[in-house]
Design brief:
By secondary structure, this protein is mainly alpha-helical. It has a single domain, classed as Up-down Bundle (Four Helix Bundle (Hemerythrin (Met), subunit A)). Strands 1-2 form a two-stranded antiparallel sheet. α1 runs parallel beside α7, α3 runs parallel beside α5 and α3 runs antiparallel to α7. The chain is globular.
Length: about 170
């Protein structure tokens, strides 16, 4: 079974029913972490690590992007979605104006939209194929995409929690 080297997450072990509560719990975790000092949350520990605000903005954008990929997968057979360009978003300054308080509201909205989308799908829809280029290029299912959204939220929540402890 494919798993994340960093956190042990196993995509194929995730059921559709567990995505909503776990994703909502991750959003609540971001609310807690991002309730701290705005200046500290926007600062970088080093040149290779995103700030907690950047991680939160990334998770928000991932949830919105993967929700759109699910819609694409419902509309087309085995589509090949465009890359999200996470590092480019940061390098281009797209997250520079994000404030922690607004970001937590954004994450809540993105998670809520994602949860409602998954809840609306039946098993046949969740089994539809979509090409996904990460972590290895392969045809996946829409359920796998939902698990990927959960992985991004939970994995990056642990990243920002570790940064908060280190501060």
């Amino acid at each position: 079974m494919e798993s994340c080297e960093g956190c042990g997450f196993e995509w194929d072990a995730v059921t559709a029913a567990e995505v909503p509560p776990r994703l909502q719990a991750a959003a609540a975790g971001f609310r807690t972490v991002l309730a701290g000092d705005a200046v500290a949350l926007a600062s970088h520990r080093d040149d290779t690590t995103w700030s907690p605000v950047e991680y939160g903005a990334h998770v928000r954008d991932v949830l919105l992007n993967l929700r759109d990929r699910i819609v694409l997968g419902l509309a087309q057979d085995n589509p090949v979605p465009h890359a999200m360009f996470g590092d480019l978003r940061i390098r281009s300054g797209l997250y520079a104006a994000d404030r922690p308080d607004q970001l937590t509201a954004d994450i809540d909205v993105a998670a809520g939209l994602f949860v409602r989308t998954i809840a609306a799908l039946d098993d046949e829809q969740l089994a539809r194929p979509i090409f996904y280029g990460w972590p290895t290029a392969a045809t996946r299912t829409l359920l796998w995409v939902a698990a990927q959204a959960l992985h991004e939220a939970e994995h990056h929540l642990t990243d920002v929690q570790a940064l908060s402890v280190a501060s």
